[in-house]
Amino acid sequence: MIRKAANEDLKAIMKIIKETIVEMHSYNNYQWDENYPQEKDFAGDIKKGDLYVIEKEGELVGFACINKEEPIEYNGLNWSLNEDVFVVHRMAVSSSHRQMGIGTELINFADELALKNNINYLKTDTYSLNTKMNTFFKRSGYDLIGEMSFLGKEKPFYCYERILEI
């Protein structure tokens, strides 16, 4: 079940973040660390109603922030469309629930949410060293459109878009 996140979910979300950081660092991907993302980032997402969680058998196993907020760094990239867009941010799945289709459920939910809001355009980004998310976005029908410098990281972030059929 996918639903809007509540403040009561923050503990489980931060547990997934800690697991994900350990895994990312194991393959030299330092996209996330002790500085980002923090609990306050997710609390802000919840307050705005932009954070969605997925539960399996009563356990929170993944989440994604979906909103219309584009990082300023997106300016100047060669996006295909110039219209309303939903952006997928801060997406993760519990390490114990990977390879079970949960990420696909979340990304499909982003598509459905966009279409319900008369939006057929989605954007996202991930660190160039985040091989798992880069593969996931490509496999999910997102097209690589360019790269940007972001969060003061040494390597670029890859930016993706997906245009939905209406």
UniProtKB/TrEMBL annotation:
Pfam families: Acetyltransf_1. CDD domains: NAT_SF (cd04301). Keywords: Transferase. It comes from the Bacteria. Transmembrane segments: none annotated. Residues 1-165 form the N-acetyltransferase domain. InterPro entries: GNAT_dom, NAT_camello-type. This is GNAT family N-acetyltransferase. It comes from Clostridium mobile.
